[in-house]
TrEMBL record:
InterPro entries: EGC1/2 (IPR044206), Expansin/allergen_DPBB_dom (IPR007112), RlpA-like_DPBB (IPR009009), RlpA-like_sf (IPR036908). The keyword Mitochondrion does not apply. Residues 29-133 form the Expansin-like EG45 domain. SUPFAM superfamilies: Barwin-like endoglucanases. This is Expansin-like EG45 domain-containing protein.
Length: 133
């Protein structure tokens, strides 16, 4: 019985450490959204990647190296003055499938569906915390 308690405690501590590491390694930026059609995409052509997707700005694009990466994006605040834009737990995980061209208004351009899961689309642009998962 004591071994089980030690294992549970050890697992809890490992989870806590990993959680803290992910918070410490987060980057900050802004998110906008784009609307369908989502294909073709710069990464996968005409492959349908669903709707939990995003386009990467130059900040994370890295000459296509971002293609296929998964990012955890958390809404932290409004960028355009909409009071309390964040929804639910304000977190979504998306796959990078496209490139947000020069002049892109955000660090990451979420699909409209992904954006709507974490923020009010009327806000248009939000402040985010993001990290690769």
């Amino acid at each position: 019985m004591a071994v089980v308690k030690m294992s549970s405690t050890a697992l809890m501590m490992v989870g806590l450490v990993f959680g803290l590491v992910s918070v410490v390694s987060a980057d900050y930026g802004t998110a906008t959204f784009y609307e369908p059609p989502y294909i073709p995409s710069a990464c996968n052509g005409y492959k349908n990647d669903g709707v939990m997707i995003a386009a990467a700005s130059d900040v994370i694009w890295n000459n296509r190296a971002a293609c296929g990466r998964m990012y955890r994006v958390r809404c932290t605040a409004t960028k355009n003055g909409v009071p309390q834009p964040c929804r639910g737990n304000g977190v979504v995980t998306v796959k990078i499938v496209d490139y947000c061209p020069a002049g892109c208004a955000g660090t990451i351009d979420l699909s409209k569906e992904a954006f709507a899961m974490i923020a009010d689309p009327d806000s248009g642009k939000i402040r985010i915390e993001y990290n690769q998962v």
